[in-house]
Amino acid sequence: MAPPEPGAGEVPDLRMPALGAAAWAGGLVAHWLPVPAAAAVVLALLIVLLAARHRLGPRRWLTGAGVLLVLASVAWVGVVRQQQVTHNPVSALAGDGAVATVEGTVTTDPRVTTGPFGQQVLVRLEVRRVSGRGATYRLATPVLVLADEGWRDVPLGATVRASGRLGPSRGPDVAAVLMATGPPRTLHGPDVWWRASGAVRASLRESVSGRPAEQRALVPALVDGDDGGVDPALADDFRATGLTHLLAVSGTNLTLVVGFLLVLARWLWVRGRWLYVVGALGILGFVLLARTEPSVLRAAAMGGVGLLAMGSNGRQRGTRALGVALVALLLVDPGLATSVGFALSVLATGGILLLAPGWRDALCRWLPRWLAEAIAVPSAAQLACTPLVAAISGQVSLVAVGANLVVAPAVGPATVLGLAGGLLGLLWAPVGHLAGTMAAWCVAWIVLVARRGAALPAAAVDWGTGMLSLTVLTLLTLGLALAGPALLRRRSTGLACSGLLVLGVLVRPPTPGWPPAGWVMAACDVGQGDALVLNAGPHSGVVVDAGPEPAAVDACLDRLEVTAVPLLVLTHFHADHVDGIEGVLDGRSVGAVETTRLRDPPGGVGLVEEMAGEAGVAAVPAPYGVTRTVGDVTLQVLWPPADSPTVGPGDGSTANEASVVLLAEVRGVRLLLAGDVEPEGQARLAQLLPGLHVDVLKVPHHGSRYQDLDFLLSLGARLALVSVGADNDYGHPAASTLAPLAATGARVLRTDLDGDLVVVERDGRLSALTGG
């Protein structure tokens, strides 16, 4: 997206953006405050506005009245929408856990996810009819369906009937969760436009079917946001290099597609108002292709703003359009006010409109205009988003601007050729394959940049997510935004800034005092999952579990300066313990991989075997009862017994009880690493090991309420570590588990509150440090 041309030096009219900000505030008021408090806020603002009427003057007073009206309108719509979703017959039945039959329209494509107990299909329905507890109701409310493989091919737009048990929703955007039993019954097929959209998407996937897996997945993601096949490790690399926007529907996608259509229309001698018709039809077609989800509508609105900004008087028109888009989107869906994707889109668009023109003009003093524009646009967008990205990920990408600049020449051709492959494939498959292959070639360059950029020593630097850290970063961002034109105007200062950025990327900054001297064990903050490291010697660690995704455990091992893993133990095959295995193996020497005896669930087993095979080692069961030394670590496997089952039901429901339980000793410190073992297993361990005492306890199963407390309390641990994700859906950890442990005098620490937890032994004294 290019910055506006004429009028770049003019001060933009910020009245419409102010109305947009008021709409955003109204959405937040509706979401965060109860109805009486929201009404009180609006009333208080009205009183202030009336009191200041004579001081403000007619024009400013009318502007203030408009701002207040927009804020109140969005807040009112938000409150009404929440009441409609949370107070209706479906939500009432869900509160009772009733079995019901629903009829509704499929509003999202089925999405396969892997949970703790295997694969599930997620689908959203707009329910029009529900029958349960002897009554039938007609209404219109959204419901999330959790189903089996029978729902995998249900088409978007179809009207279906399904039965199952309703449960309460954990979010304000759906009235209930339906645990469906069996496949749906299709009552009516999708409308013609949905069938056409589905045909283009299928043709697009077919046009790249012969390409390597990464290219095969990324081309649809670029064109229509279909990122279901993108490898998580590749997604992590895109995140580290600031290229994540290419994996989702964004305003850039729409700008490229509709911009190409407008160029094509000009070649065909379309002029005047008819170009607006072409643009409107292009936006409509894009929305249908990418689906009418809130994220797509958001992207379409931001892309439309970008198209207006590229015309004459672009900065003024763009800022006004941004304000109008914010008001319209939030009136339609006030819930967008709390959406991270919405915030990132708005910030990026605002950065391009407000910052990029000045930066481009400064760079134009010593660079060609096309190069100045290519640097200014991604730089402005990235800078505007930096504080929010840091708040979400805890990182600041140093390669984002460079990576976006390098891939920019390939993004447009990949998107347009990919779309052409989908359209032409409907007419003649070989032509579609040709266009798809050329799109895949472009994508191969983007993948290469993401891989190489993420592998740089300091591609992304860790940044705290606390209030002080984010305040400092926001102030730095504002300072750079204001000083940008002055710094870039001169060749000397511009090149110096570029040199500092390159140096920062190539040289990893030292982390003073980390890892701390005398560290024994670390519980990595990897979200809702486990990843533990035992200090086996200089730059060497025994790793127990790998967490739910590769990037987090990889970053933790980097912080601990672990480059060799003589032993990786995976306590069981649930996703929150094994899905991050690639992050452990990537770039490190691995001596052995050991697992539980129970080979269930199959998805986790397959992933571990595949990753271990690529690393040149075989995954074998941990030897029960054997005591051995691995570097500075002494280990003994306490559970599961040698005669325990090796075959499960296939859904992972018995995997926790088969967790590998380890007794370890490092520098004289005794540690019990209990995996997710259940109370029955804990009770059996108490019988097998009477009088067992340890210094450190890794609390089983993320501190859940299902524990044999007599066993845990009998261990006499001085430190109790809970590896758990913030705001998880399982209620972990439970106060009923933590309070008794704390009552014994043990220090209880949690990764969701304290970040990385590191046990340290110095001169016979045991302590714990946190990296939060």
TrEMBL record:
Keywords: Cell membrane, Membrane, Transmembrane, Transmembrane helix. PANTHER family: DNA INTERNALIZATION/COMPETENCE PROTEIN COMEC/REC2, RECOMBINATION PROTEIN 2. The chain crosses the membrane at residues 22-49, 61-79, 246-267, 274-290, 296-312, 319-336, 371-392, 398-419, 426-448, 468-488. This is ComEC/Rec2 family competence protein. SMART domains: Lactamase_B. Pfam families: Competence (PF03772), DUF4131 (PF13567), Lactamase_B (PF00753). Gene3D superfamilies: Ribonuclease Z/Hydroxyacylglutathione hydrolase-like. It is found in: Cell membrane. It is a multi-pass membrane protein. Residues 528-727 form the Metallo-beta-lactamase domain. The keyword Oxidoreductase does not apply. Its main location: membrane.
